[in-house]
Amino acid sequence: MTKSYEEIPLTPISNTPSTVNLTGLWRVVKPVVDKSMCKKCTICWKYCPDAAIKLIDGEPVIDLLYCKGCGICSFECPAKCIVMVKEG
Amino acid sequence: MGKVTIPEEEFTFPGSTGCPGCGANLVMRYLLKGLGERTILSIPACCWAVMPGYWPSNCLKVPLLYTAFEATGAAISGLRAALDVKGIEGVTVVGFAGDGGTVDIGLQSMSGAAERRTDAIYVMYDNEAYMNTGIQRSGSTPWGAWTTTTPVGSTHGFKHESKKDIMAIMQAHRIPYAATVSVAHPEDFVKKVRKAKEIKGFRFIHALSPCPPGWRMSPMHGVEVARLAVETHMFPLYEIENGKVVITRKGKGLPITEYTKFQGRFSHLTNEEIASIQRTIDWSWQNLLAKEASGT
Amino acid sequence: MREVMTGNYASAYGAKLARAEVIAAYPITPQTSIVEKLAEFVSTGELRAKFIPVESEHSAMAACIAAETAGARTYTATSSHGLTLMHEVLIWASGARLPIVMTNVSRAMAPPWNVWVDHMDSIAQRDTGWLQFFCQSNQEVLDTIIMAYKICESARVMLPAMIIEDAFILSHTSEPVDVPDQKLVDSFLPPYSPELKLEVGKAMGFGSLVKPDQYMEFRYKAMEAMTSAHDRVLVVEREFKDVFGREHGGLLERYRCEDAEVVLVAAGSVAGTAKDVVDALRAKGQMVGLARIRAFRPFPEQEFKALASKVAGMAVLDRSYTFGAAGAMFTEVKASVYSNQKRPVLKNYIAGLGGRDITPKIIEKIFEDISVISRRGIEDEVEWVEVAGLPRRWK
């Protein structure tokens, strides 16, 4: 992402969405959702620090490109249907 | 099937470089959900100065001014003055600073901005130490906590000074609205932010921001620890509106060991020391209840 | 309108005519009457601006930085300890490429406490990336503030500028000043409208984090801007002359230097005294001249090179000292003539610190000394003027 001399502005102005940072590469554990047990309560979506969980038809979809594997969704899930498993 | 209890629209992108389980990430996420698009943020040197990522990456969907460490109060004053003189209305100016940049090095400029009744919201995300520079103690570090500058060592060291009561300091500035919020109570968080948004003048939001590396805890407890902070009265949820204290969540009054047991930064404390913390917390809580009852 | 006014009031009128929109300032002797006058202008509605009575000078500059990033034209003023307190954010303002204009009433630094004129505070900011103009008269103060906005807001510059008034000698002494008509100033100086600014609805971050592989390019661009500021100063001054009928000598004002054998190099109000001495000595047949440093940043290197090739001796008067090296102006003059084929004798005179008067007699003796050593050769390169215990008599 290194910019050329001409592209460098007067002062560093950040206007590229941070989705360029694939923070999913940081993970050592990843969340695995048991959809059969999911009650679609949306609590995991609510507590994800990285907004890496999207709600699609009320169902949580975890974006593994960005999920850092913090485990908050797993801990907070009332149905205990998210399990953290070792990456790789 | 559950309904979402907080606004669904996101004002942050994933890909912020905050640690896994970072409470500050949640603070920003809930804050912007409450404030919406017509917001301008000013962020000093702190974890959040780094979290949008290296230039040109930006995890925020609202305009942002990075400033020097101690200058948040001055920056929001300047921003508001510029918007006013240009006749631009309906914009929330927000200063978003850590505890260091608020209660220590930033105290002077924040006090000035509050005294001048600057029309802005000042949000202090409190991870209870200078986390961005590597977990050094701040005025907001609680009594008993380990930090790198209050190490335990062989002399059983820890922070021997109490946490600065920034809400009391703000109350003394006679600002129209101050509130504590927690990342474990997002509905309360968003409600308070929305309330603050509608009030003119200087508003202050104190958000407890659990920090897994700094508090020596597992990232997955990031929200639970904030919940327990409220339930044990370590961090009560209340508002100070026009000088009057209103407690917004009573909390169960669990013993503080429920809170400290998750955090390695308290693991060196003896039973007597824990008991002394419990006494202080109980006393503070009774104090707060008394303030509420007396209408002050 | 022609009025008798102090340098501080001239600053206030300059900021008013330039239509500063946000003014954030903190009082310090001897700057206070600038801020008071501006508060008065705002309170009567004469100046449509927001006045922020900040709680420190650091906050004054930080507030100006924020307001300028949001697209407002800002102004502030300070002196000595206030200026040095701002040091961190002075560098921020220039790094952020914000055309903030500030008056610094140059005053000595403590300890010992001393409120009188001395250039140490201003000189200590020479590395901050600000343009620096030393003024000789109250008229120049007013005019330079207006010119500075035009110079700094141009796309090729976009750097902040400080206009330096000597404490008490300019700030509190009244002189006749021509205050131009607002309409005329408006025709010369358009409103501030930067290409990039903080705007609601535009997700942009200003002042972000840059890795080593990209940082230098930002500094390089700032260097280019400071370099182009040199010509921009001259262009804007020509335009100013066309509209208002006066000018102040560019970056280096040369007074009777064309056929001078020796020249005195000085900055600030002392140059006015020196011009009188030059006239008196010229009347006696001595070939002397005065080169007044008007812009210390960008440093008028080319002008000095040209001047140095024609004179036998240059006496550089520093009203400051750099603790461990010679006076700053002397050092920079010397460096600028290093590569000349023909180099004059250069000597540094440290005088007037803490407001000590630099009298015509002293200036005469400096000319005498530089004339002698430009023929005989130099012994000591740096001499402190009129300091108790030193052998030379200056009175």
How do you describe this structure in short?
Chain A has 88 residues and is of the alpha+beta class.
Strand composition percent of chain C: 15-25%
- Tally of extended strands of chain B? 9
Overall geometry of chain C: globular
SS-derived structural category of chain B = alpha/beta
Question: Main beta sheet of chain B, described?
Answer: 8 strands, mixed
Describe this structure in words.
The complex is a heterotrimer of chains A (88), B (296) and C (395). With 88 residues, chain A is an alpha+beta fold. Chain A has helices spanning 43-47, 72-76, and strands at 13-14, 16-17, 29-33, 53-56, 59-62, 82-86. Chain A has one domain (21-86): Alpha-Beta Plaits, CATH 3.30.70.20. Chain A has two helices and six strands. The radius of gyration of chain A is 17 Å and the shape is elongated. Chain B has 296 residues and is α/β, with parallel strands linked by helices. Chain B has one domain: Thiamin diphosphate (ThDP)-binding fold, Pyr/PP domains (Rossmann fold, 3-Layer(aba) Sandwich). Chain B is 36% helix and 16% strand. The mean pLDDT of chain C is 97. Chain C is globular and about 70 Å long. Chain C contains 13 helices and 16 strands. In chain C, strands 3-2-4-5-7-6-13 form a seven-stranded mixed beta sheet, sandwiched between helices. Chains A and C meet through strand 1 of A and strand 9 and helix 9 of C.
Tell me the layout of helices and strands.
The complex is a heterotrimer of chains A (88), B (296) and C (395).
Chain A: E1 13-14, E2 16-17, E3 29-33, H1 43-47, E4 53-56, E5 59-62, H2 72-76, E6 82-86
Antiparallel strand pairs in A: 3-6, 4-5
Chain B: H1 23-35, E1 39-43, H2 47-50, E2 57-58, E3 64-66, H3 72-85, E4 92-98, H4 100-104, H5 107-115, E5 120-126, H6 166-172, E6 177-182, H7 186-198, E7 202-208, H8 212-215, H9 222-231, E8 237-241, E9 244-249, H10 257-260, H11 271-294
Parallel strand pairs in B: 1-3, 1-4, 4-5, 5-7, 6-7
Antiparallel strand pairs in B: 6-8, 8-9
Helix pairs in contact in B: 1-7, 3-5
Chain C: E1 2-6, H1 7-17, E2 22-24, H2 32-44, E3 50-52, H3 57-69, E4 74-79, H4 80-85, H5 87-95, E5 101-106, H6 120-123, E6 131-134, H7 138-153, E7 161-166, E8 174-178, H8 182-188, E9 205-206, H9 212-244, E10 252-255, E11 262-266, H10 270-283, E12 288-293, E13 295-297, H11 301-308, E14 313-318, H12 328-336, E15 345-350, H13 360-376, E16 382-384
Parallel strand pairs in C: 2-3, 2-4, 4-5, 5-7, 6-7, 11-12, 11-14, 14-15, 15-16
Antiparallel strand pairs in C: 1-8, 6-13, 10-12
Helix pairs in contact in C: 1-2, 1-7, 3-5, 7-9, 10-13
